[in-house]
Write a structure and sequence with these properties.
Length: 52
């Protein structure tokens, strides 16, 4: 029996409602959740020099 899949729009809403600390866990839930979780987790990055 096939496992039902959630529509991508619903998956995106779930991922948006999750706090940042739980995003790595969401990325491991299933392969469908990985892109949305990864996007939210890495959408902004800061690069610092060793001097600061």
């Amino acid at each position: 029996m096939p496992v039902p899949q959630l529509p991508p729009e619903l998956t995106d809403r779930i991922i948006k409602a999750v706090d940042r600390g739980s995003l790595p866990t969401c990325a491991l839930v299933c392969s469908d959740w990985l892109p949305a979780s990864r996007y939210r987790l890495f959408r902004s990055m800061r690069v610092r020099s060793s001097a600061s």
